[in-house]
Hints:
Helices cover about 50% and strands about 15% of the residues. The protein has helices spanning about 10-20, 25-35, 45-55, 65-75, 85-95, 105-115, 125-130; strands spanning about 5-10, 40-45, 80, 120, 135-140. The protein has a 5-stranded parallel sheet. Strand 4 (about 120), helix 7 and strand 5 form a beta-alpha-beta unit. Helix 5 (about 85-95) crosses helix 6. The two termini are about 30 Å apart.
Amino acid sequence: MPKAQSLVLDTHVWLWFVTGNSNLSKGAIAEVTKAALAGRVLIPAICVWEVAMLEERGRITLNKPVTDWIAEALDLPGISLYPSTPDVSVESCRLPGSVHGDPADRMIIATARIESSTIFTRDKRIIDYSKLGFVSAQAV
């Protein structure tokens, strides 16, 4: 029997899921919750950097220090940190087709490609890239 597909959460989806933000649809919450219960939610390491950067720049406000928020968010059942491996780094530089240059998005896309996973995102550029068939993405 094939391994069930994991979900790769884009940074904003991870934030919304953990904080219960209403920007995430009920259907998306249900899908992420189901995947988490099966231990199949991956958070690319670059997302940790993005959360810290957004918090440092005042673009998001967390209810606790960023290091505590990240530790707790990664400690939730079924959620795993996906490391920034050499394979992810190289793949992010060699993505096929035309993809924009945002390094964080490229690392998220590379993670999903390496793991044959679906990215949950609201990022139009990632969704448009997925339509080329090089990665699976689902709009949330």
